[in-house]
């Protein structure tokens, strides 16, 4: 049963917690700035892109930059979770062959590392938004914190689903990279939603889960209002689908994964 599976995940919490901390330590090992790179990299890219795009689209850079920054950090987390998730079992083959832990802990490891980096990168976003939009500071800012559980509910089952498939078909990480690039072009990650609407592409906004996920952050910080029920509905809809597919496929192939590795 699903409840028994989650109990096993909880019982092995010390193991996967150690893996998460180990990944974070190795990520910035011997780096002078260390975890500060989680903030410096998206900030540097934001400054460059907002300068160029503000000139191209005749937009105020001070208001456009936080929009781009919020898109960069959340999109980077999603891409890392998807592409890294597809390789989670392959990269953990030594543990899988020696330990009988639930396989979902290895994709949980991937998404938690990314989530911690996202939390660090979010700090300057809050400061930046408070400086640029002081009139938007209020209780609705608490809604921003809900982005973290929402993202886990989406990316953990998706990463697990892709890990099951990726263990058998090693071309999957390359395919997911191409798919994510395509999704970037049809989603308001860096480009404002009004640009899509002016082009008659309202459906790429209204029915796009990526847009609604981003609105959970952008509505409170950049627009001064609570995210809507529609935003949460469209954001969590794929989470339910991915969880169902991961559970169905996992029941059939989890015991066979060791033979694919």
What can you see in these coordinates?
The protein has 14 helices and no strands. The chain is mainly α. The chain has one domain (2-260). Helix 8 (147-168) runs parallel beside helix 13 (229-253). The radius of gyration is 19 Å and the shape is globular. It starts with a helix and ends with a helix.
Summarize the structure.
By secondary structure, the protein is mainly alpha-helical. The protein is 77% helix and 0% strand. The chain has one domain (2-260).
Search tags:
mainly alpha, 261 residues, single chain, 77% helix
Element pattern in H and E? HHHHHHHHHHHHHH
Report how far the terminal alpha carbons are from each other.
25 Å
| Beta-strand share of residues | under 5%
Uncertain runs are none
Number of DSSP-assigned strands: 0
Structural class: mainly alpha
Describe the global form: globular
Number of helices: 14
Helix fraction, binned, reads: over 70%
Question: Average pLDDT value?
Answer: 85
Task: From the alpha carbons, calculate the radius of gyration and give it in angstroms.
Answer: 19 Å
The total domain count is: 1
Q: How many strands, which pairing sense, and closed or not: the largest β-sheet?
A: none
Q: Helices, strands, pairings?
A:
Layout: H1 2-11, H2 13-27, H3 37-57, H4 61-86, H5 88-91, H6 93-98, H7 104-132, H8 147-168, H9 172-185, H10 193-198, H11 203-206, H12 209-223, H13 229-253, H14 257-260
Helix pairs in contact: 2-7, 3-4, 3-7, 4-7, 4-8, 4-9, 4-12, 7-8, 8-13, 12-13
